């Protein structure tokens, strides 16, 4: 076994009568060094694996431990394996099927004197995927005056020689099924559709203004109708450069916005939506003061006669005119003015932002994900029995506390609230012989107010899994297609991801939604109105 793969030996157990401050100090130093060695080994192995992948070689395999001799877990699914399940295609399901064709099939031989007793239905589901070309013969006439007139195309017929059903199919394949443009082109050509790669790209990204407008309304409606939102971001390359996609959403909606940075200014700009102003109201000034903007700078902003700057150019000109050029001062002032604009346009200042502890999301009432907080403990490795026992004990207590917080959300009370706060203090101020564990506990304790915000706001989740699940859409797209190459392409990607995910949350078929919007029927209500309606509906 190589030194890289060799696990550091366990520390020897020292009897209590032989322990001295010097011995304890040496054991703690050795333990800390063992942890560093283990972490460095993992980093080195990760780099070796990456080099192997770049060379086209196989990285070190991840071999799962054997389950030999282990008793399989029993769950509800296993317990019901022997129960008779309802076969697919039951009468209840068949009633929902739309019948496109009915074929009457008599018996091969009907004996004389038999009586007709009706029908026994047998459903066969199938799908037809084939070209369907329509030729419109537009009558052409010459008037007595010599003017040429031509019959108009019927209402709803596409002006670019491709019908709405084909356009819907292309949009659905690309934005929902994550099929790449070359594969869509190959698929359509094999079906007999005469189309080019450039036309497919045009269908995917051009002329989508109505969709973009509905996407922006999703954010506006979602923020106004919500008590909290989950937020997260991920990498999203654009034009060959690193970029980021930010997700904002909850059980009602999902909204995505891609930008070049992931600063707090960027996040506040996204929250502001289609508004472009910078507002110096009391909320903005309070934010600047809380973030220690110098009094002289704060006073100069407070004394401005014009408190509402219409756009970024006007705001930057105002800062330059006031001599506010220090990078940190500009940042705090801009963040405050953006926050002022958001609140000025009706956003609830008690909105809870639930994140994974990324600093740019720490605005308004900020709550933290317990799953991410626990990872600082979960990644630790004990190097002797005493450390492992301490680690296991802390993890057991943490997840017991987590389960009790979930129970509190269902039935909150002042007595439970006080008990949970005391248990939080007791757990995360514990001192052990494991130095790294102590540091992890201290870090979690420093975030007490954000982790225990649920005690004041029981409606908020304890974790940020919803946001991570939603933004996985971009992770899959990144693995399949890399990044976007044009601004309209990036905008279309964000728009259709937002529309698709929001449709799913509202129980609306994305397939039917596309046909409804492309045909101009608009029988499906705007998604923003659906969000507001669902938020008003109890339960």
Structural commentary:
The structure is a single chain. Helix content is 50%, strand content 7%. With 539 residues, it is of the alpha/beta class. Among the domains are: 126-132 and 156-206; 255-361, no CATH class; 370-455, no CATH class. The strands form three sheets. The chain has a five-stranded mixed β-sheet with strand order 5-4-3-8-9, sandwiched between helices. A two-stranded antiparallel ribbon has the order 1-2. A two-stranded antiparallel sheet has the order 6-7. Strand 3 (228-235) and strand 4 form a beta hairpin. The longest helix has 34 residues, at 21-54. The chain is globular. It starts with 20 loop residues before the first helix and ends with a helix. Residues 66-70 and 75-79 have low confidence and may be disordered.
